[in-house]
Amino acid sequence: MAPQLDAYFKEVDSMSDHFIERLRKAVAIPSVSAEDERRPEVVKMGKWLAAELKSLGAHVELRELGKQPHKEHLDLPPVVVARYGNDTKKRTILVYGHYDVQPALMEDGWATEPFELTVDNKGRMYGRGSTDDKGPVLGWLNAIEAHQKAGVEFPVNLLMCFEGMEEYGSEGLDDFIKAEAKKFFKDADAVCISDNYWLGTEKPCLTYGLRGCSYYSIEISGPGQDLHSGVFGGTAQEPMTDLVRVMSSLVDTDGKIQIAGIDDLVAPLTDDEQALYGDIAFTMDNLYESLGSTTGIYPDKERTLMGRWRYPSLSLHGIEGAFSAPGAKTVIPAKVIGKFSIRTVPNMEIDAVNELVYKHVNAAFKALGSKNTCKCFLQHAGKWWVASPKHWNFTAAGKAVERVWGVKPDLTREGGSIPVTLTFEQATGKNVLLLPMGSSTDAAHSINEKLDRRNYIEGIKLLGAYLHYVAEEPMSEA
Ligand SMILES: [Zn+2]
């Protein structure tokens, strides 16, 4: 299988310094999408990426997305779309990544200049965007170049979609993907996104699911203005008392959601799915280390991972309008807004969840017999995503992992969301695979973000190997 891979791998090894230089150039462009004054740097990064792709012989287009909503003085950075190869006998794979980064300042606590790639003696390559997501994006370019240098035929047609607003809500991208699904992206047979992380540091994974999120507010009001408890305590019904009682009815100490009917919406656990959990490289100590405590809910790894990935959770986030400063202010807040969210999983439809939440909150408030007013509403909702890990897109990636890393990958889900995943699936109707390059300790979004040299170089091999296996894999739509 895929006999040309040895020559390709050898070329990647011999070009590794060149690939690290390419990453160094990319990290040096501070393409922070959240900072208005750095918008020209984001655009510069998009143009740099387009030029690199052109020099590799790809067809490249910079697509403008117009003005930024709510910041009309700013143009959104362009989406870089590209095509490498145009052979109708080959499969076509669409890949996505982003070239913008999170903000980073030395004062935040970085040990090295965030926009200078700094490689330490353990091969850790520090720099903003190294792992999220410039390393993986350049991985695709490096894979193309190593094929050319090695004289190995590129196994697929590659469609690329690299955006510059991911760290700021992917403004404008959903409509773009929907519009291009039947145009620029129309030949895509499957989609691959490299923009997440291994569960740990040693074992690679393929990710096939993400939870959704529905975020709610409960607003309770009564008095016309804030009151003094020395004067009005004991004479007026207090909104804060009602809110705390309603919020406390939502979930218990073990994270069990108390809203009637929620459990019935959750897809039952099948034997096939259960079997995926046993081998996953994860321990309770991993959990305790990342928690910074031993206050986990479940004693075992399987149920803990299921709690994060395949069951819903409800978190209480805060109360707007409540007294939260240090000290002992004797205020009675006149209006308070409690915030909570539910991480949703298959088969919880957004509308069905809303209905149960409103019913529960209204009943819980009614039971208090309060004269105050209670309103519950949805702030925003994003849907969960789950793909079949038996699809050829996944089995091909699994073979590539085994070839490069010598182990079968863990099949993982994530507790959070990557909204573009669902957009690609819905717009193209094709299977989407999340194929991470970096590891759990890379500190994406945090200070001292890094990508290990090993993950980068082996990751380039992995992306290339994936394309070879995906070209050979029987197209069973399992
Ligand atoms: Zn990212």
Please describe what this structure looks like.
- With 478 residues, this protein is α+β, with helices and mostly antiparallel strands.
- The chain is built from 15 helices and 20 strands.
- A hairpin with a 4-residue loop joins β6 (118-119) and β7 (124-126).
- α2 runs antiparallel to α4 (130-150), α4 packs across α15 (453-472) and α7 packs across α12 (350-368).
- The longest helix has 21 residues, at 130-150.
- The chain is globular.
- The model has no long low-confidence stretch (mean pLDDT 96).
- The chain binds zinc ion.
- Zinc ion is lined by residues 98, 132-133, 166, 195.
Termini Cα gap? 21 Å
- Strand elements, count: 20
What overall geometry do the principal axes of the alpha carbons give? globular
Bound molecules: zinc ion
| Percentage of residues assigned to helices | 25-40%
Individual helix count:
15
CATH topology-level name of the largest domain: Aminopeptidase
Widest sheet, order of strands:
1-4-8-5-9-19
Range of strand content: 15-25%
CATH evolutionary superfamily of the largest domain = Zn peptidases
- Which stretches are poorly predicted, pLDDT < 50 over at least 5 residues? none
Give the domain tally. Answer: 2
Which class of secondary structure composition applies to the elements? alpha+beta
Under the CATH scheme, the architecture of the largest domain is 3-Layer(aba) Sandwich
The CATH class of the largest domain: Alpha Beta
